[in-house]
Design goal:
Strand order of the largest sheet: 12-15-14-13-16-17
Number of strands: 19
Helix content: 25-40%
Oligomer: single chain
Length: 409
C-alpha cells in the first residue's frame, strides 16, 4: 500500500461500518493511510438500530447459501470470508468477528443470533469502538456522484451534495436502497431495485374481515396449483393482504397471480384431515349430548373471527348441526384458506430492496468491480438478498469486512 492512500466508504450502515473496521485494522502500522466514511443522515449506524425490532439479529448459526439470491456468487464470497477469518469455536466468521471485539451473543430459534444484551445498540457500540484513529466519520455528507480515475492508478473523485470534492484511491459503495444506482458509474451493470421481505397485497375478499388476526400456521406459495415454497410460523392478516415473517420470506418468490394458502392446522396431516374431523365430531357429541353446531365444532380450534370468516366463505350456517360431511368441509377449508397475490403490500416498510449492482461484474473474494478497478460494492448495494433470520445482516457484515480488508492488503 502506498503512503497517503485514501479509502472512501459511502454509507455508515452495517456493511459500511464493517468495512471501515476491517480496513482500519488492516491499515495498522501503515503510515499515512486514511479512511473516510460518508453518511447522508445525521447519525452513524442508524439502520442497525432498527433491525430485529431493535434487538439486531446480526447473523445466523445455520447460514445456507442456497437461500440467497445469486447463491453461487454468495457461496464463493462467504467461502473466501470464512477462509480469511477463521471462526474458531463460533458458528461462523461474523459471530467470531464480534466475539473477538467483546460482544457476547445468544441463539434463539432457527439459529438466529442476537447480542446477549438484547439491544441493537450493542452491535453499533462494538463497531464504533473498533474503528481506528485513521477513520474519519462524515455524517450529514451525501455523496451525489463518483468520477472514476482517468488512468490506471489514478484517483476517484467524490462529489458531495454541497459541492465539496473528495479524492480517494479506493471506494467502497455500502449504501442501500436506490442510492447506489445513482452513484455507480455506467460501466457497472445494475438491476433496478424492488421491495422484498415485505407484506403481500392479495385479493381482499376473504382476508379483510381478519384484519390484525395473528395465527401460528403454515403458509404455502402456489403457482399453477403447485406449491413452490412453504413457511411455518406467524401469519398476520391485514385488510389489504398478509404479513408476518412467513409472508416476508415468501415475498422474495411471489409473483402477481400466485396463490397463498394458509393452513391453520399444520399439525394435522392432509391425508388424515377427514379422520381428524370425524374423531373431533364424535368427541364433541359425547361432551355435548344436546347437539353440536358448526360454531361449537370450530370453538377451541381457531379464534371466533376466523371461525366466522371460514363459515361465511364456505356458505355454512353457523347454527347448522354438524355432520361428517360438514366437518370434513370445514377442516379442508382450515387447511387451505386461499387468497391470490396481487403484488407487494406495505413497500415503505420492506426490510430489503432486491436488485443492485449485478454480481457478475465483481470478484466474489474482494467485492471489487472487474470493470472499474479500485471500486468495491457491498451489502444491499449488490444484487444479493436473503430470507429473514439474520441472513441479510450476515451478508452485509461479511461483504463489508472482505472489501475493507482487500482495499488494504
Amino acid at each position: 500500500m502506498l503512503p497517503m492512500e485514501r479509502i472512501a466508504i459511502i454509507g455508515a450502515g452495517a456493511s459500511g461500518l464493517a468495512a471501515a473496521v476491517a480496513a482500519s485494522k488492516t491499515c495498522e502500522g501503515k503510515s499515512g493511510a486514511s479512511i473516510d466514511v460518508f453518511e447522508c443522515s445525521d447519525r452513524v449506524g442508524r439502520p442497525i438500530l432498527a433491525t430485529g425490532n431493535g434487538r439486531c439479529n446480526f447473523t445466523n448459526s445455520r447460514i445456507d447459501c442456497a437461500q440467497y439470491r445469486n447463491p453461487g456468487f454468495v457461496s464463493a464470497a462467504l467461502d473466501a470470508f470464512e477462509g480469511a477469518f477463521p471462526k474458531g469455536s463460533h458458528p461462523n466468521g461474523v459471530a467470531a468477528f464480534f466475539a473477538r471485539r467483546g460482544m457476547l451473543y445468544r441463539e434463539e430459534g432457527e439459529g438466529r443470533l442476537y447480542p446477549l444484551a438484547n439491544k441493537a445498540s450493542v452491535v453499533l457500540d462494538v463497531l464504533r469502538s473498533s474503528l481506528g484513529p485513521n477513520v474519519n466519520m462524515h455524517p450529514d455528507s451525501r455523496i451525489d456522484g463518483i468520477d472514476v480515475p482517468h488512468e490506471p492508478g489514478g484517483h476517484f473523485t467524490l462529489r458531495t451534495h454541497d459541492g465539496v470534492l473528495h479524492r480517494a484511491e479506493r471506494v467502497i459503495v455500502a449504501c442501500g436502497g436506490s442510492v447506489a444506482e445513482s452513484l455507480l458509474p455506467p460501466e457497472v451493470a445494475f438491476r433496478p431495485k424492488a421491495p422484498v421481505l415485505c407484506s403481500l397485497a392479495t385479493d381482499v375478499e376473504h382476508v379483510r374481515e381478519l384484519d390484525n388476526i395473528r395465527a401460528k400456521a403454515t403458509l404455502s406459495l402456489l403457482r399453477d396449483g403447485e406449491a413452490i415454497a412453504r413457511e411455518s410460523g406467524e401469519v398476520m392478516f391485514r385488510k389489504y393482504g398478509l404479513s408476518g415473517i412467513c409472508t416476508f420470506n415468501l415475498s422474495r418468490l411471489a409473483h402477481p397471480g400466485d396463490d397463498l394458502s394458509v393452513d391453520f392446522l399444520p399439525f394435522v396431516d392432509a391425508g388424515g384431515a377427514q379422520a381428524f374431523a370425524a374423531d373431533r365430531l364424535q368427541r364433541l357429541k359425547a361432551a355435548y349430548p344436546g347437539g353440536v353446531d358448526c360454531v361449537a365444532f370450530l370453538r377451541g380450534m381457531v379464534l371466533p373471527r376466523v371461525a366466522d370468516a371460514l363459515l361465511k366463505r364456505c356458505g355454512i350456517d353457523e347454527d347448522a348441526p354438524v355432520t361428517d360431511v360438514l366437518a370434513a368441509r370445514m377442516l379442508d377449508a382450515l387447511k387451505d384458506y386461499r387468497t391470490q397475490v396481487k403484488g407487494p403490500g406495505d413497500v415503505e416498510h420492506a426490510q430489503v430492496q432486491r436488485g443492485g449492482a449485478c454480481v457478475e461484474g465483481f470478484d466474489p473474494a474482494t467485492l471489487e468491480s472487474r470493470d472499474v478497478p479500485g471500486l468495491h460494492v457491498v451489502g444491499e448495494a449488490l444484487d444479493v438478498d436473503g430470507p429473514c433470520g439474520g441472513y441479510n445482516l450476515h451478508w452485509a457484515f461479511a461483504s463489508g469486512i472482505m472489501a475493507g480488508r482487500s482495499c488494504v492488503s
